[in-house]
Amino acid sequence: MTDFTRRSIIKALAGTGGLLTLTGCDSLSRTPWFTDILSSGETLSDVAQHAITPRKGMAREFAREDISPQFRQNGSTNPQTSEYRKLAANNFKDYVLKVGGRVKNPMNLDMAAIRALPSRTQITRHDCVEGWSAIGEWTGARLNALLKQVQPLPGARYLVFHCADEYGSSQSRYYESIDMEDAEHPQTLLAYDLNGEALPIGNGAPLRLRVERQLGYKMAKYIMSIEVVDSFDNIGGGNGGFWEDRGYAWYAGI
Ligand SMILES: Nc1nc2c(c(=O)[nH]1)N[C@H]1C(S)=C(S)[C@@H](COP(=O)(O)O)O[C@H]1N2
Ligand SMILES: [Mo]
């Protein structure tokens, strides 16, 4: 692709706030020009997020009437790992979220403990890189409240979310990561309810991330553990997420 084409596409992306209207996470990640644009998007995101839209801002929230009749289920929708099948068979009664890594106070929390954390309910729009959106009402534990309890050690920079599923036929576990700034944001949740009911398996039961100022692929479903780290070097392919290891931007700001 010529520099001119690349620049035009980046300009168009900047105009839409970086949201792509394209199809197929999968096939796109293998297309070199797309990978290229996503890496250029890093720079774009830096500019867009830190100059045009301050990252500290709140994502838009919607009214009850705006909720989509059906919230699409995308990516993995029914994890097949034996670990997950066992948990699902018992309606997640034995589920325990492990929080560790560079923290003073590692914790194991069952769903009752997670539901007892300070919570928030918000109606937001989910934007997938494949070009669809859905509005839903999420309730979950505020990640900043959990961080207060585990107490990240000095030098802790990122939170890595390890998931129960292997995406498609990849035979590698889905994972994602965010920085401390997004982790402390008031709208960042470990969500357990969607539209007033327990999160369906298709949408990430029993626990999924909501990080509202970023694209859908950042919102890890089926979270099994959270690891606080100072770098991604020894995690997965070293790029901070399943799709990042396949060329997507780490900061997927919208
Ligand atoms: N564990 C896990 N999390 C995931 C995915 C996945 O395949 N596995 N897909 C991501 C993508 S690309 C999107 S758009 C959203 C879809 O969330 P939904 O199923 O609630 O619509 O989950 C994200 N989180
Ligand atoms: Mo997505």
From TrEMBL:
Which CDD domains would you find in this protein's record?
A: bact_SO_family_Moco
Record domain Oxidoreductase molybdopterin-binding: where: 92-230
What protein am I looking at?
A: Oxidoreductase molybdopterin-binding domain-containing protein
